[in-house]
Design a protein that fits this description.
Blueprint: E1 18-23, E2 35-40, E3 50-52, E4 57-59, E5 67-72, H1 75-79, E6 86-88, E7 100-105, E8 110-115, E9 122-125, E10 128-131, E11 140-152, H2 157-164, E12 169-173, H3 180-191, E13 195-201, H4 210-222, E14 226-229, E15 243-246, E16 249-253, E17 269-275, H5 277-291, E18 296-298, H6 299-302, E19 324-336, H7 340-349, E20 354-359, H8 367-377, E21 381-386, H9 390-410, E22 414-418, E23 432-435, E24 439-443, H10 449-453, E25 457-463, H11 465-482, H12 488-512
Parallel strand pairs: 5-6, 12-13, 13-14, 20-21, 21-22
Antiparallel strand pairs: 1-2, 2-5, 3-4, 3-7, 7-8, 9-10, 11-17, 11-19, 12-15, 14-18, 15-16, 16-17, 19-25, 20-23, 23-24, 24-25
Length: 513
């Protein structure tokens, strides 16, 4: 039925009620549990309302719930997939997996939603299929926020002290978790009757390392609940977010919970601790949405039988940039795939003077890079600092060469460098932006399509000139260090010239003497 339908349309509303989504291809036997989601305004009691696919018609008169409402004849599967109110009908449409249309009508008007071939277990909403029950958060902004900003590996103490001082709750979310000191702090908090919950990714790239198994086993043995995201019904490709809610404080960072990340023994990362109950509540909403769903499992059910080998970072680095406190004009919590892409594009599009970008790597196809180039065309000075680590150097050097060529052709104020740690950190892991020296973005958001569209990512935008100045200083230091990174051919040539010069000077001195 309409097997080749590709055009997506959503026409006029049927009175005040509209079709919000459709779930035509459940994972159950016989497609049991198909449903449609309606959007019903408050104080509405629809009468004479019908749902049809042209073959069957369902009477929807008397829906009592408002907001988004699931309509189905079999509420069992839907109740396991969503916490939306459910309106049960005696019978239901037979929704085609090959694509068709459904219509909502009240005798005078109609709302038609057409969908193409339906992947199994996905919801059609907002013009595309996606894993069911992905969140749909908007950017959450709070004004006048007390913050402490810091960089790693220079000063990890704001992160550790926040966790160690918990009185009421710790909700810790991460991609990987291997830090024994964080484990100790969580266990100590749990033993003080602090509510402690942990959420991690169950299938990180390369596998779960043995040190992570050790630390999570310790938490489980102590009675700390651990949720692992990544079942067959996973809503996101990876749970890549790195944050914590500690009482009424919120911690957001670019770094994993490991010695070489939040422990301060390795990577260059950015972090912020925000002392504000609303920001903490916003992050707690995200944590609950990601933890309390069927695509998470317990650590017991997820523990790998053969973890991959992995070491522990122990190198210490100097503290050139200690943490700094300030009062931010506002802080905005961003999430991907919900809203981060549009919010970051907006930051870049509104830049008037400068953009500073520090990233592990950048996918050339990302719209964020295109927006940065567009800013350079407006005369905004754009500097991009990429990782020089061995695993990213080749592709980053190619991108840098391409951007330099474009900047030269178009005479753009756009420069790109690869980072050179020079014993101040191990490698760049920050995912950060500074716009006009006053707006800072930090968190887990890499600049690639997966991060923007498929992963769960969390970042914060901090609007604060003091924080902007702090991170500008860090960026300038890392940028100057990158000036020392030269191709080996250039270094070899310079060395040869220097040696020849020294030899000539000695010969001249011998001749003079």
């Amino acid at each position: 039925m309409l097997e080749e339908l590709l055009v997506i349309t959503l026409l006029a509303t049927a009175g005040p009620v509209t079709i919000d989504g459709v779930y035509p291809n459940p994972t159950t036997d016989g497609d049991r549990g198909e449903f449609v989601i309606l959007s019903v305004p408050e104080n509405t009691s629809p009468q004479g309302l019908e749902l049809t696919d042209g073959e069957d018609t369902i009477d929807l008169s008397g829906i009592e719930a408002s907001g988004r409402v699931v309509v189905t004849a079999d509420p069992g599967p839907a109740s396991n997939l969503t916490d939306l109110p459910i309106h049960e009908t005696k019978s239901f449409l037979s929704l085609s997996n090959g694509g068709e249309w459904v219509a909502l009508r009240d005798g005078t008007s109609a709302s038609n939603l057409s969908y193409p071939r339906a992947p199994e277990g996905e919801l059609y909403r907002n013009g595309r299929f996606e894993p069911i029950a992905r969140s749909n958060f908007r950017p959450m902004t709070t004004r006048n926020v007390s913050i402490k900003t810091t960089v790693l590996p220079d000063d990890p103490t704001p992160l550790t002290r926040a966790i160690e001082s918990a009185d009421d709750r710790i909700l810790l979310a991460g991609y990987t978790f291997t830090d024994p000191s964080v484990t100790d702090a969580l266990i100590n908090a749990h033993q003080r009757n602090v509510t402690v919950r942990v959420l991690i990714e169950g299938g990180p790239v390369g596998g779960i390392p043995r040190p992570q198994v050790t630390q999570l086993d310790r938490l489980r043995a102590a009675g700390v609940p651990i949720a692992v995201m990544g079942t067959d019904r996973a809503r996101y490709r990876f749970h890549h977010a790195k944050y914590a809610v500690v009482d009424d404080r919120a911690v957001v960072t670019s770094e994993n919970w490991k010695p070489g990340g939040t422990g301060g023994n390795g990577s260059r990362g950015w972090a912020a601790v925000m002392h504000d109950p609303k920001v903490a509540a916003d992050l707690a909403r995200i944590f609950r949405a990601d933890t309390d769903f069927i695509d998470t499992r317990s650590w017991t059910a997820s523990r790998p039988s053969e973890p991959v080998e992995g070491g522990m970072d122990t190198t210490r680095y100097p503290t050139r940039f200690p943490a700094q406190s300030s009062q931010a004009e506002q802080v905005t919590v961003l999430t991907a795939p919900d809203n981060a892409a549009g919010a970051v594009r907006g930051m870049l599009a509104n830049a008037t003077e400068s953009i500073r970008i520090q990233q592990v790597s950048i996918d050339p196809s990302t719209p964020l890079l295109n927006e940065s180039v567009a800013a350079a065309r407006r005369g905004v000075t754009v500097r991009i600092l990429l990782s020089g680590a061995w695993y990213a150097e080749s592709e980053n050097r190619a991108l840098a060469r391409s951007l330099r060529d474009r900047a030269e052709r178009e005479d753009l104020p756009l420069t790109v460098r690869l980072a050179e740690p020079r014993s101040r950190y191990e490698h760049v892991h920050a995912k950060s932006v500074i716009v006009d020296g006053e707006s800072v973005l930090l968190g887990s958001l890499n600049w690639n399509p997966n991060a923007l569209r498929e992963n769960r990512e969390v970042a914060v935008r901090i609007d604060d000139s003091k924080a902007g100045t702090y991170f500008e200083r860090v960026f300038r230091a890392d940028w100057r260090g990158a000036a020392w990174r030269l191709p080996w051919g250039v270094l070899l040539g310079a060395s040869v010239i220097l040696l020849l010069g020294v030899a000539a000077a000695r010969s001249f001195a011998d001749f003079e003497n």
